[in-house]
Design a protein that fits this description.
The protein is an alpha/beta fold. The protein contains 17 helices and 17 strands. The strands form three sheets. Strands 1, 2, 3, 4, 5, 6, 7, 8, 11, 12 and 13 form an eleven-stranded mixed β-sheet that branches. A four-stranded antiparallel β-sheet has the order 14-15-16-17, with helices on one face. It has a two-stranded antiparallel ribbon with strand order 9-10. It starts with a helix and ends in a 26-residue tail after the last helix.
Length: 621
């Protein structure tokens, strides 16, 4: 107090010279200035002491707030665990991802909560299995299919972004969303990232899919498209035949009948034309916050724009705690054709895309280092699920490699569909080069971030994720997850048990997908595996594996080979029963009524609907 009093001037200049010490609190400055003037420029010692306490307390509080880490979460789309060097690939070059692992903690048993985009990302953002938010399906459609559908991440779900936003973080999402846009009108944005805790959004409200580039094929309900087109052609031919017969006198069919058939023909044609033929316009769009800025999007410039937006978000928020979810469009098909990377890898266009993705991760890492943010920034790298084995195109395979693990994308039980890269880097806080071979989940990021940000987990719902910090800091040896439940759609596909008294990791499969052709490693007849009856083989008793000894799940255990066989199945069944008691009915977000295209919900720019068209004016290269 003596030092403060000695250095604090008298008179009107007080409010200027003490501004840094008072923490820019105008109410304190005004009160102090008025007291000084009233006392004829004589200091009030008690008031100066009070100002000192306020100033020290304010600076301490700000220091505590500013000591909270930044978060940069980088999620690649459809990347296989075997596609990067630090997880065993020695032919595709990923030096930047490998560097993250060398300077941080690498999780070798990091598990997605679902084997497809929409449910996996819902679980990641909410820390809860997707079935709890209604984003799981009992039928063929397991992801959102249109921006103009009504389904999505329910507004009553609490994402980690929403909690961090309340804690004073600036939050941004750059890239893919795929969790819905609207509920009841074109502009209600009930499912939009801005309504789920992200202050800023730039990117794809939907996802990349083959229809976004001409010549890459079709992805959405192809059999239904063909039936509608075939029915329209048949009705058109019937109408023309009847008209000709009537005009020539061969038939006396009434014009009313012909008119009814013509109306059916027009309706069938419209049912194909509007949602399917124009699907590139409806789904392949770019939004900035709530505004559509490009429709349809230019894929050739999309990657550089997303990267620039991510870098810019970090730079403009470097002075305050921030959360950036960089949700890359790479390496989902259709693959990017970038002149700086085409032909550079040993694995065709897919390998080129993986190496371009790695370069983008390097750019983000460079920005963090340039701004001297490394020691106050937790960086996280992962994929939303396993690589797509069955995806092939004119350029060759378009899907990822899942290493030694069986299965891939859309397979909720096999490891290849759900085991993904998991790397966390935080110099000065996390050990460099650490390997952790314990079951962890993408859902664990939720409680980890909330705790580090000083927030509290919601108390009105089940959170399935667990705080990772004790494990990755080396304070504990074992994961908090004794059981993990592996869903395929709304069906419980498999359960993983990590006994507390052993190093074994058991996994029981209740059903497995029917691969085709016989002996194949995927569902090449459908191009993606299904989860419902008719497309799977149930197992009773369940197929049982010990992943600690057989990570490729090649040889099922039997009672004569595994002494604990009966005990494992009993413990798994008990765990399933306990888990199912925590599930409550919620609105189904992936029902046909929710996912089918509705003109009234379609985001649109440019002319009046349906004449939607616009291009982003300024593009970064």
């Amino acid at each position: 107090a003596v030092g403060f009093l000695a250095g604090c001037p008298r008179g009107p200049s007080l409010k200027h010279s003490c501004l840094p010490f008072l923490g820019h609190r105008p109410e304190v400055i005004i009160g102090l200035h008025s007291s000084v003037e009233v006392m004829d420029h004589k200091l009030n010692p008690r008031l100066c002491v009070l100002a000192l306490l306020l100033c020290v307390g304010g600076k301490t509080a700000r220091a505590e707030r500013d000591s909270r880490p930044n978060f940069i979460l980088m999620m690649v789309d459809d990347l296989g665990i075997g596609d990067v060097g630090c997880y065993g690939n020695d032919t595709i070059r990923t030096p930047n991802v490998d560097r993250l692992a060398q300077e941080g903690v690498q999780l070798t048993q990091h598990i997605a909560a679902a084997p497809l985009c929409t449910p996996s990302r819902a679980a990641f953002l909410t820390g809860r299995y997707a079935i709890r938010s209604g984003l799981s399906s009992t039928g063929r459609v397991q992801v959102l299919l249109w921006n103009g559908g009504a389904g999505g991440l329910p507004p009553n779900e609490t994402t980690f972004a929403k909690i961090l936003q309340r804690q004073g973080y600036t939050t941004g999402l750059v890239g893919k969303w795929h969790l819905g846009v609207n509920c009841e009108s074109r502009t209600d944005h009930c499912h939009h990232p801005n309504n789920h805790g992200f202050d800023y959004f730039y990117g794809l409200p939907f996802t990349l899919f083959n229809d976004c580039r001409a010549g890459e094929g079709r992805d959405v309900l192809v059999d239904l498209q063909d039936k509608l087109w075939g029915a329209s052609l048949a009705l058109s031919l019937a109408v023309l035949t009847l008209v000709g017969a009537r005009l020539t006198g061969l038939l006396a069919t009434g014009w009313r009948v012909i008119g009814s058939l013509a109306t059916l023909c027009i309706l069938g044609f419209a049912a194909w034309l509007m949602p399917f033929h124009l699907i590139r316009t409806w789904n392949c769009i770019v939004m900035r916050d709530g505004d559509v800025v490009e429709q349809p999007m230019d894929m050739e410039t999309l990657g550089p724009r997303l990267l620039h937006e991510a870098e810019d978000f970090i730079e403009r928020n470097q002075q305050r705690p921030f959360l950036l979810f960089f949700s890359l469009a790479h390496v989902h098909s259709p693959l990017f054709i970038s002149k700086d990377f085409v032909g550079k890898s040993k694995h065709g266009l897919y390998g080129d895309n993986v190496e371009e993705m790695d370069w983008m991760i390097g750019r983000i890492l460079n920005v963090v280092e340039k701004l001297d943010l490394s020691r106050k920034t937790l960086m996280y790298f992962t994929s939303d699920h396993g690589g797509h084995l069955e995806d092939r195109g004119a350029w060759g395979p378009r899907g990822g490699w899942n290493g030694i693990y069986r299965g891939g994308k859309a397979m909720g039980g096999w490891e290849g569909g759900i085991r993904v890269p998991g790397i966390l880097r935080w110099p000065g806080r996390l050990p460099a080069g650490a390997l952790i071979d314990e079951p962890t989940s993408l859902m664990d990021i939720y409680p980890t971030l909330v705790k580090l940000a000083g927030g509290e987990l919601p108390g009105d719902r089940v959170i399935d994720g667990r705080d990772l910090m004790p494990l990755i800091e080396g304070k504990v040896r074992r994961s908090e997850h004794e059981f993990l439940f592996h869903y395929c759609g709304a069906y419980l596909n498999a359960v993983r048990w990590r006994p507390r008294d052993s190093d074994a990791i058991y996994k029981a499969h209740f059903f497995t997908p029917n691969f085709y052709p016989e002996g194949a490693i995927g569902c090449y007849n459908l191009r993606i595996c299904m989860c419902h009856e008719g497309y799977v083989t149930p197992h009773d008793p369940p197929l049982l594996f010990n992943l600690a000894e057989d990570p490729s799940e090649s040889t099922p255990l039997s009672p004569d080979r595994e002494p604990r066989f009966s005990e494992v199945l009993r413990r798994v069944r008990d765990a399933v029963a306990a888990h199912e008691r925590t599930l409550t009915p919620v609105p189904h977000q992936l029902s046909w009524s929710q996912i089918l295209w509705r003109p009234s919900l379609q985001p649109c720019c440019g002319g009046p609907f349906p004449f939607c068209s616009c291009a982003e004016e300024e593009r970064s290269t």
